[in-house]
Amino acid sequence: MEPHAKTDTAGRTLPTTPSLVAATQRLEQNAGLDRLRTVYAVAAKPLDRWSGSELLRSGVIGHALHPLLTDVPLGCWTAASILDLRGRPEDRGASRRLVGVGLAAVGPTALTGLAEWSRTGREAQRVGALHGALNVVATTLYLTSWVARGRRRHGLGVATALAGAAVAGASGYLGGHLTTARKVGSRDPAYAVDQVENALDAKSEPRRTGGTDFAI
């Protein structure tokens, strides 16, 4: 995408910002997403009250569990579409099973994401809420695909899976923005004090999530 050229009050050209980056920053400042954010806040309350909620964050592997779990549904669904695009009738059963395994992995993946989301700042929560809503749409499309395949409506199953892949891709971009650009993600406290972390911090920008410092 072409970057936006901006100037300051003196007419001097400011560093350009890629269009996609600017659009994502506008999402962070979009107060219209606060209603969706409120819905997710209600859903996250039971997790925050649960004494074992850290198991959904970094308590098991030392850093955020959510990004690891996303590989399961996305990997299964991508493999299903690859088989679909090969166009071999003998692959149809395997494609449906892959879609089904991906659907089975949605629950724990969503729970870990919601647990991380509850610890972030307002701007990151706006993007995260949209990320979650897109995931709901993608999951619905894949569920439709799984049902259609079971009823031998293979063409509909393929079409809805490809639509789900497109929506999941958009959601994945937002998830990548949160974890990479905004450094959203829990971690064991040991990582905050070791020499490797100190060396990295000395060469990088402060860790922030949509304007709010984030550290666990």
In short:
This protein has 216 residues and is mostly helical.
Task: Outline the structure in words.
This protein is mainly alpha-helical and 216 residues long. It has helices spanning 19-28, 34-49, 66-86, 92-104, 106-117, 122-150, 154-181, 190-193, 195-203, and strands at 4-7, 13-17, 208-209, 212-213. The strands form 2 sheets. The protein has a two-stranded antiparallel sheet. Helix 4 packs antiparallel against helix 6, helix 5 (106-117) runs antiparallel to helix 6 (122-150) and helix 6 runs antiparallel to helix 7. The chain is globular, with a radius of gyration of 20 Å.
Which percent band covers the strand fraction? 5-15%
What structural class is derived from the secondary structure elements?
mainly alpha
Order of helices and strands: EEHHHHHHHHHEE
Number of strands: 4
Provide a count of the helices: 9
Strand count, sense and closure of the main sheet? 2 strands, antiparallel
| Mean pLDDT across every amino acid position | 89
The radius of gyration over CA amounts to: 20 Å
Approximate helicity band:
55-70%
Low-pLDDT regions: 206-216
Q: Any idea what the shape is? A: globular
Distance between the termini: 35 Å
> What order do the strands of the largest sheet run in, or round the barrel if closed?
1-2
